[in-house]
Amino acid sequence: MRNNRGSLLLLLSLLLLAPACDSSSMSELPVISQFLPPTATATPLPTATFTITPSPTPSVTFTATPSPTVTDTPTPTSTLPPASRPTVTPVEIARGNPERPWMALTFDAGADSVPLLSILETLRQANLRCTFFVTGLWVLENPDLLQEIVADGHELGNHSSTHPHFTELTDQEIAQELAAVEELVMQSTGQSTKPYFRPPFGNRDDRVRRVVQENGYITIYWTYQVWDWVGDRTAEEVFNYAVDGARNGAIVVMHVGAAETAEALPGIIEELRARGYRLVTLSELLVS
Q: Most exposed: 18, 62, 117, 175, by fewest CB within 10 Å?
């Protein structure tokens, strides 16, 4: 190593002392490499072997969630025999089968009750069964008349507890209105008001119909009315409205508190039957 170091120093001295030269004279200079120590042979480092085991791709299992089966709200239990219950429960019904000459005379009971005795007697004489929509307040005031309606074989429907505007109620208040009537009627007669509900004043919308159905009822509207709730109506006008509006599958709304209806009812029944209409309960009308 000492001899090699001296050779390097000598070579550097010669280069510093030498005059500038062109490229031709550079070829006469000693090759620097002959003064360098021999290239050391590097011992290669051992090659490290890395085994990379890839992490397994997690197995993703997709579980398909089946679409829920949509079913119509079942018709709630009724005291009517199975053959008499409707097979279809739409959100709202305003008319029965338009191909069949059947009609349903229905009565709302929510105000006066005096004319009802005459109405019930007329229905007995005509051997006719109808559907009565009752309110809770009316039931509380007329428990004996309610029992008479049931004893004569008539059908009951729910007309709310206090006769409010249903579109102004919350969902919970609607449910309470329906439940209060059902409880009163069941306690008094053992007969259910389900599955039929008629909104007071005919006041309803999509939300009301939905909540009503969620509580086990079908909203029943009407095909036409006889306007017997208007104060200046005469019995003749009630009669005319009743027979002029007649059509297949019609649901007619009347009121038990209307004296004009009680007076006109015998003639209405006679005329409708003479025109070939069969008068039935709501359940009979809605059976397919």
A: 62
pLDDT value of position 285: 97
Which residue among 22, 72, 108, 144 is the active-site one?
A: 108
**First-last CA distance in the chain:** 119
State the average pLDDT over residues 214-219: 96
The separation between CA 281 and the C-alpha centre of its own chain, rounded to angstroms, equals 28
| Per-residue DSSP letter, 155 | E
> What is the CA 204 to chain-centroid distance, rounded?
15
195 cis-preceded (ω within 30 degrees of 0): yes
154 tagged catalytic:
no
Radius of gyration (C-alpha) of the chain in whole angstroms? 49
Q: Are 242 and 117 within 8 A, CB to CB?
A: no
The dihedrals phi and psi of 144, each to the nearest 5 degrees, come to -70, -40
Catalytic option among 154, 159, 163, 255:
255
Cα 145 from Cα 155, distance rounded (Å): 14
Distance CA(212)–CA(39), nearest Å, equals 100
**Could you read off the pLDDT of 154-202 as tens digits, one per residue?**
999 999 999 999 999 999 999 999 999 999 999 999 999 999 999 999 9
Checking phi first, is residue 252 left (phi over 0); if not, alpha (psi -120 to 50) or beta? beta
Known catalytic residue at 159 = no
